[in-house]
Amino acid sequence: MLEIKNLNKTFFEDNTTFEILKDINISAKKGEFVCILGPSGCGKTILLYIIAGFLEKTSGQVIVDGKIVKDPHPDRMMVFQDYVLFPWKTVLQNVLFAFENNKETSKKEEIANKYLDIVGLSNFKDWYIHKLSGGMQQRVAIARALAVDPKVLLMDEPLSALDSQYRKFLRKKVEQIWNKTKKTIIFVTHSISEAIYLADKIYLMSPRPATIKKVYDLKEFKRPRDTSSKEFVKLKKEIEKEMSLDFKKMLNNFENKSIDIEKKMLDVKL
Ligand SMILES: Nc1ncnc2c1ncn2[C@@H]1O[C@H](COP(=O)(O)OP(=O)(O)OP(=O)(O)O)[C@@H](O)[C@H]1O
Ligand SMILES: [Mg+2]
Question: Which of its termini does the chain have fewer beta carbons within 10 Å around, N or C?
Answer without folding.
Answer: C
